Each structure stands twice: as C-alpha cells, then as structure tokens.
Amino acid sequence: MLNKIILASKSKVRKDILDKNYIESVVEPSNIDEDIVKLSLIKENATPEIISKNLAELKANKVSSKKADHLVLGADSVIDLNGELISKPRSREEAMKILKKLNGKTHYLISSVCISKNGSMIWNYTDKAALTMKNLSLDELVNYLSKISDETLYAYNVYQIEGEGKNLFVNIKGDENTIMGLPIKKIKEYLKNLEN
After folding, report:
1. Which residues are catalytic?
2. What are phi and psi of 70, to 5 degrees?
3. Calpha distance 72→66 (Å, rounded)
4. pLDDT in tens, 78-93
C-alpha cells in the first residue's frame, strides 16, 4: 500500500485512524475558512452532503497544489438534520442548542474524503451514518455537557462517538470510522488499487 500521504487536517482523530491502519501520514492543515465556504454554498441551496464533499475537496486541493506529486487527503464531516446543516459549536451555549435540536431525533453524520494530486481531485468518497438520539431531559443534557472537555466539544462536534457520546444514542446505523470522520475502509481500498 502507498504508505505516505499528507493529511490536510488538524484532526487528531483522523490522524489516529490512519496510524491504526498503518497508513503513514504527515499533517499539513489547509487552514481554509470553512464558514465562508459553508455560507456561500448554503446560499446556493447546497445540501449538507454537497457541502461536506466540497470542503473535503477544497482542503485536499489547496494543500496538494503546493506539494507536487504527493497524495493529499482532505476530509470533512457535517451533521444533517432534515436537510439542515449543523456545524461544530463555538461555545457551550451553542453546544446545548445543538443537543436540544438533535434530542429524540434521527440525524445523519456525513463524512467526505478526497484525495488530490498536483492540485486536482483524483478520488473522492462520501459515507453517512444514521444516529437516533435518546429523548433526554434538560438535566441529562446538562450532565452530559459537564463531562465533556472544551477540546473534545469543539473538535468532535457535540459528541465523541468513541467516548461519552455513545451514551446519547438509542440507535446507530453506520460505520464508526465514518462517524469519527474518516471512512477508512474505502481509503485503504483506493490506496491498494493504486499500487496494482
């Protein structure tokens, strides 16, 4: 398997998933302003899935345009609640609003990945998982948030599925790696095929 790629993401979780799957990677964040991109795509009535795909591609292309002949992996994850895009919270108040919105409902966690070379996308893949949140009381939501560190809250959206977050859900359908932000099976398949 091609064993060295550039990860255009600051996400420790994505880096950990690559490491656990023996894919050597160097981190080089794209530093794009995601909010500006999201706002312009929302104005064009783009779906959460299209927004996720575009952001993954933008991140990969930006870094890969500066790194000749390297494979660059860009990734983006969003929450889709009945077509509404839900972004990561910037404060605990926002996190509580998001939890109240998701409470007792099913939403989709969409993760898109893109591999670029010389500034252009050469492969992409999007996967989604359906998560149904328990109907929790305000006290339960407050208690949950009190257990979550700021770093976790702002890095993983409002739940970390491999941590406390799994206790929020009554039903999860989908790949855990997709929920964590990197559908690794498909990435491995693609990299393996490149060698053949």
Report:
1. 76
2. -100, 150
3. 10
4. 999 999 999 888 899 9
